[in-house]
Amino acid sequence: MDSFYTLALPFLFLFILCSPYLSSSQLSPSFYALSCPNVEFLVRDSVRSASDADPSLVGKLLRLLFHDCIVEGCDASVLVAGNGTERSDPANLSLGGFEAVDAAKKLVDLFCPGIVSCADVLVLAARDAVAIAGGPSVEVPLGRRDGRVSLASNVRPNMVDTSFSLDEMAHLFSAKGLSIEDLIALSGAHTIGSAHCSAFSERFKEDANGNLVPIDGSIEENYAMELIKKCPANASPATTVEDDPVTPNAFDNQYFTNLLTKKGLFLSDAILLQDSRTREMVEAFSQSQDKFFASWEESFVRLTSIVVKSGSEGEIRSTCSRVNG
């Protein structure tokens, strides 16, 4: 499925058909004020160092966060390694950023051993990566605990394909307490990162000579030809293209301008422009980066508060890649 292979969010992507999200009333931006007051500085410093070495880390961390929150909630269950875990499912095999989260967690534990969850480290790391790339720095509530369950069988039924209609995506978002406005704002994550060719292959077909030709009128012709050059019929499965062809390394509002010029990479991107319920907001975000950033901040907080574990639920993992004990 398309969303399985994108390296950034495609949010397009995103939510699951399961129980309604839990109350996040126990979360607070000041949760670690006494127990680990430097946690945000430590994670930010670690992520900045990692992103200097790997500029693609922003998209990787965003996608990693999204794939975590959509299955068992934002509980770091996607970080657990091993056969039969979420991480082992084909939907998640192309995920990246694990090493950056592990490094940040180890640094935090040097100063505050056993205090900060991997789930909170992941949320902070994704938040900070966006800010490092020029996006807003969101104040996020903290206090999540790590889940003890990570099953590959929970992944496939809960993925949203980029060929879904707006109604299908809106229904899934609504089931998680998210609105169409959240859908549009979070889709703005496609302003950064990259995707495998298979993520948008349904927009092309092979002709009699074995060459790809566009079959989707919602994509601009020259942009379509650029994609074909980068992703020919015989392209390696590992080949990727940038989600945003204009400012691929900046977290900005260019994604929405791209949509207006028919340069959205995924079908689910193009749908946002074609539907009257969403086009107005796409246009507004393209005209005002401040408006997009303000909506992003609100939607990001709602995303990271879905199905959280807090209080006595779950655990604080010693190592993010395996449950305790």
Automatic annotation (TrEMBL):
GO terms for molecular function: heme binding; lactoperoxidase activity; metal ion binding. Heme b binds at residue 190. The keyword Chloroplast does not apply. CDD domains: secretory_peroxidase. It comes from the Eukaryota. Binds 2 calcium ions per subunit. Binds 1 heme b (iron(II)-protoporphyrin IX) group per subunit. Its EC number is 1.11.1.7. It catalyses: 2 a phenolic donor + H2O2 = 2 a phenolic radical donor + 2 H2O. The record marks 63 as: Transition state stabilizer. It is found in: Secreted. PROSITE patterns: PEROXIDASE_1, PEROXIDASE_2, PEROXIDASE_4. Disulfide bonds join 36-112, 69-74, 118-320, 197-231. InterPro entries: Haem_peroxidase, Haem_peroxidase_sf, Peroxidase_pln, Peroxidases_AS, Peroxidases_heam-ligand_BS, Secretory_peroxidase. Pfam families: peroxidase. Residues 1-24 form the signal peptide. Removal of H(2)O(2), oxidation of toxic reductants, biosynthesis and degradation of lignin, suberization, auxin catabolism, response to environmental stresses such as wounding, pathogen attack and oxidative stress. These functions might be dependent on each isozyme/isoform in each plant tissue. Belongs to the peroxidase family. Ascorbate peroxidase subfamily. PANTHER family: PEROXIDASE 6, PTHR31517. This is Peroxidase.
